[in-house]
Amino acid sequence: MLGVNDGIVSTSSIMLGVLAAQASDNTILTAGISALVAGALSMAVGEYVSVSSQKDSEREDIAIEARSIAKNHDAELAELAAIYEHRGLKRDLALEVAKQLHEYDAVGAHARDELNIDQHDLAKPLQAAIASAAAFSIGALVPVLAAVISPSSISGWVIVIASLIALAISGATGAIIGGGHKVRAALRVFLGGGAAMAITTLVGHLAGTQL
Fold first, then answer.
1. Structural element, H or E, at residue 192
2. Which of 118, 135, 176, 183 would suit a FRET pair with 25, their CA atoms being 20 to 30 Å apart?
3. Count of domains forming the chain
4. Integer CA distances (angstroms), 91 to 80, 94, 98, 115, 164, in order
5. Residues whose CB is less than 8 angstroms from the CB of residue 195 and which lie 6 or more positions away in sequence, other chains included
6. 151: which residues sit within 8 A by CB, 6+ positions away?
7. Does residue 58 fall inside a structural domain?
8. Which residue range is the domain that position 168 belongs to?
9. What stretch of H or E contains 69?
10. Which of 39-53, 76-90, 92-106 is the most confident on average?
11. pLDDT tens digits along 16-33
12. Residue 68 CB neighbours (<10 A)
């Protein structure tokens, strides 16, 4: 939902800023499409780099844990047992569970219960990049399509209304998914997006009159 909101706000704001500078309809639409493509690619690259770094970090943490288990087996076993005891198991049972897991997959047990990493399901950079680009594109399509279907005389208003409605729906949807307050979330995104569009429109108007 963050990517969708970003796509709506950034693309609509750019289009409104260009519109306020007295640009032609073609220029406004070109700005919107360019913002969609550039934003989607930026989100994809940024997410890919970020998640790749996370994956590298996870691999290194697992490798460190594996070396530590090889060098300090008893200490690592006691550490794992202490984790289970802290979670509510009795000491003898915690130690027995730790011993059995050490025999089965010591590195996997420590990665999962000590580092909160599933060594068989590490971060997926490409998947994250595609998801981010897709989410941004979905949001950015709202103001672009609004500009396409609306008459030039009211295109600005149609972009604003469509974008604000989409933001409110997106905010409420995010709250439903996350178990938050729907109205509060929708209003927060609605007001934030509206402020961004208003400020960018003002900047575009000032730039248009000065340049």
1. helix 182-210
2. 135
3. 1
4. 11, 5, 10, 21, 57
5. none
6. none
7. no
8. 2-52+130-210
9. helix 25-71
10. 39-53
11. 999 888 888 888 899 999
12. 15
